[in-house]
Fold:
Amino acid sequence: MQQNFKSSYNVHVVRILLTFVGMIIVGSLLRSLLLPSEFGDYGHYRPGAVTEEANREMRNKTNDSCLDCHYFVKKIHLKGVHEVVSCEVCHGAYSDHVKDGKVIGEMPVYRGEEIKSLCLRCHNKIIRARPPESIKMIAMPEHLEEKNVRTDHVCNQCHHVHAPYKWIKEAREMMGLPEKWEGGSSWKK
Amino acid sequence: MEEITKIKKEIDLDRRGFIKKVLSGAIGGSLLLVMPATAREIAEQIPGMKEQTDLFIADKKFAFVVDITGCIGCGSCCIADKNEYQVPDGHYRTWVERYIIDDHDEVYVDSPNGGLDGYTEPRDDIKNPIRDTFFAPKLCNMCENPSCVQVCPVGATFRTEDGFILVDDKRCVGCSYCVQACPYSVRFINPVKHTAEKCTWCYHRVRQGMLPACVNVCPVHARKFGDLNDKSSEVYKLLHEPHVISVLKPDMGNKPSLHYLGLRREVI
Structure:
């Protein structure tokens, strides 16, 4: 009777051990099936993801890559204070335009009121939150009234968008006016 | 008679030559149109990056500095970011916040469409005189102790040995645990891919020696990116010389690598 009891006790232990071994085998099988092979080589992640992220398509390039072909724009753009403005902000990403050295799409060129809204992203005075010393700011339509022009004028009627002072300078030279003009209504002396 | 045939031969020769020239010109010209123009290599903005072929970037420790006092809030960075990653509408990898503080220390913050359309309207709900106004661009802080990595249950977000926190969109299950864990709210679930997404400091551009897209387009150089191991770099000088410089939420203990120049205590 006692012998019988002892043997059945051992059977329980063996069963538990067997279950544990079975769980470990099934667990490690599932793990090897579900985890990518190189997972954990450098940490708790898949190193392949680093390469994938590093090989993502670069959609924006630099101004140099745009001006490489657009040499007439280059001549104007790099001479004015707007040389710091990125081409791709107004005209869209490089990779929408050129692929493998070939033109694949036309880029938007803004006109009229659209230009005005682009200019005012940076130069709008009514947005008080910006450092006044770093950028020239104007209020519309006060700026037009001050310059004695019609209030329905858009920015690029006086300013070249790529070099804002280009035409102003040329006009001043033609009129024989000094480089810097102090005071508000400048053209009426 | 012989004379005439000679002249005729000469004309024939000339004609053949003429046709040859025309044909070669036409073929050459059309070939020029068909063949791709050899795209010129753009100069590296971060020198020595193209030679690095290992899995991780060696000998460089990148840091990002945002100059609060310089930002004009034009939103060029937001446009460049949307262009680079084609981020779905309503989600932002980087955005610009406008802060207005009145003389009663009341803080007004807004960020219409993440600053993507620029700031066109003034705040007209402010009664008291304004004491301080500025813009605060936000992006991934690339923490040294990232909360998002700690909580990810599947190892889909991780910190590389070169200090970038990236997302593995093949492993991400979209549980958005990391979105909640990030103290800076830079993460979102991409509505198309249903995986977590965030600013990577343009890891793919940096690997090719290019500056992050937002740094590249900033017209006032308010966003600065550079190597802290290079003692002549601008970011090294900014972080090792006396400046008003801080990180966001230092009490969280995340140790961000994104620093703000001229940061006000009101920015969170």
